[in-house]
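INFO  loader      accepted 1 record
INFO  loader      residues=159
INFO  predictor   begin
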Amino acid sequence: MLKTVVIAAAPGATKCWRAAMDWRGIPARLVDCKRLPKWRSKCFKYGGMLDPIAGQLERYMDLLSARQKLVASNIANADTPGYHTEDIDFQSEFQNAAGLAPRTIEVTGLAMKNDGNNVSLDRESRLLSENALRFQLASSLLRSEIQSVREAIKEGQSS
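INFO  predictor   done
INFO  writer      dumping tokens
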């Protein structure tokens, strides 16, 4: 059984990437986006089962991904003179329902080196580990949510 999922489409694009997915893999192909609105309305019409939890998990995982990029950037600039550590105010960004790109803040209270750099490799290493753990937890929660929907569908098909 194949199902079609749009995996990338630029706003106003005339072509978009669409994949025919099955349990074995995702072969992608370029298709006409004019058919996209019809598909999208069908997709979101039935997508309401996961919305309350999955939407929040998606936002949480997006924030974790943005933080991972920031931490990697901080580590890459550990020897750059004058570089100041950046981070995301995780609580306020998660509560921000707008879903915009997270704002970065300069981290205060870190020891400043002679060259004006305040990157702490110990802090950044801890954040990398913490982020990986949080992402793993969130993906496990999302996986179990999807599994419960799959089981409900299978149960409905067998009756």
